[in-house]
Amino acid sequence: MELEEERKSLAWRESLTTSMEQALALQRECLKTLKESAAWKEASLQEKTRQLEAAQAALDAQVQEAVQEAARKLQEDQRIGAQRIIDCAGEASSALVPLGMSPIEVAERPASIADALPLLNSASERLQHLEPILAGHHEAEGREL
Questions:
Q1: What's the CA dihedral at 65, 70, 74, 76 to 10 degrees?
Q2: Can you list the residues of the chain whose pLDDT is less than 70?
Q3: What does the buried/exposed string (b/e) look like for 116-132 if buried means 16 or more CB atoms within 10 Å of the residue's CB?
Q4: CA-CA distance, 130 to 98, in Å (whole number)?
Q5: Where are the domains of the chain?
Q6: b or e along 50-87 (b: 16 or more beta carbons within 10 Å of the residue's beta carbon)?
Q7: Which of 16, 37, 71, 78 could in theory staple to 112 by disulfide, Cβ–Cβ 3.0 to 4.6 A?
Q8: What's CA 132's distance to the chain center, in Å?
């Protein structure tokens, strides 16, 4: 009887050990699946990070290109504006020379509107002195008539 009890106890322990081994095998499978899932997620995250970095680099390049284009456009606008001022001052100078005023000198071609403003100021000053000169010419013509 005692031997029978021992056998039952041993069978029960063996059954318990088998159940524990099965549970441990199941846990190992779950752990393996979790590791695979984590590896897949890490690879996916790395790919998304790479894509994000590539998109950021492309965006940075587009921004830099837009800034360069805006700077080029601004320089072109400045050049055109400066040329308009030079042309205007030249026309005023050409019109004033027959009236006995000296021409407006341009030492070097201005690169920007700000550089060309002194020419405009010079033309303005000469135009302000135009009234007495025209009055003198009108008086002289009136006397001749």
A1: 50
A2: 107
A3: beebbebbeebeeeeee
A4: 12
A5: 2-144
A6: eeeeeeeeeeeeeeeeeeeeeeeeeeeebbeebeebbe
A7: 78
A8: 54
The predicted structure's pLDDT at residue 120: 81
**CA–CA dist 24, 32 (Å, integer):** 12
What pLDDT score does 126 carry? 81
DSSP state of 45: H
Phi/psi at 93 (nearest 5 deg)? -65, -45
| Predicted model pTM | 0.56
- 126 vs 51: CA distance, rounded Å: 65
Listed in sequence order, the DSSP H helices in the chain are: 2-96, 113-128, 130-144
**What's the token pair of residue 104?**
């407006």
